[in-house]
Amino acid sequence: MEELINGVKLEILSKNVDITDYIKQYFIEKFSKVLSRIPEGIKENAKTYFIYKKEGKEKIGEVMITVSKRNFPPIYTSESGDDPRLIIDKLAYEIERQIDKLKTEFEKQVREEMKTKRDISQEETEEIEEEDTSEEELETKIEKIQVRIEKPITLDDAIALMKESEKKKGGKKLPIFIFNDFDGKTKVIFRQSKEKLILFEIEK
Fold this sequence. Notes:
alpha+beta
């Protein structure tokens, strides 16, 4: 006979002895609280067996809980005696202890799975950021070589033209400005910072 207690399947079996409705009810009431301690991620895949049997003059109660998913070994215990209520009480105490151990192991597995997912997500984000950085660096290099050498001018005029070009670009600072002076030399103005310019002379 299979029943459902707090989301956990329960099957009650007997051997060489009849299980009265009183014993069944006592077991269900006692184990309703015990089985509620099984974590939600395990309940739907768990099944509990209560075996009540008689061997000679001895009455024996056994409880086994199996989990169809995840690598958890079955939970099992057995007790013997004359009073079925005392047997069930002892079974409940031991099963509750083992469920708490199972719960600790389950929570550990969940934490490790979440950590693995976070690590994978972070690696994917870093890969995307590296790709974006590479694209930005490529665009910057292209911008730096897009220059035009005008007719010969003085250094002051070159600086004035550089600033005028920056205004036309909405105030965006140019990294370099190339020009020819009246001595026929090619020179490069390099903007090191907002206020500091460096002049390079290209030797031919």
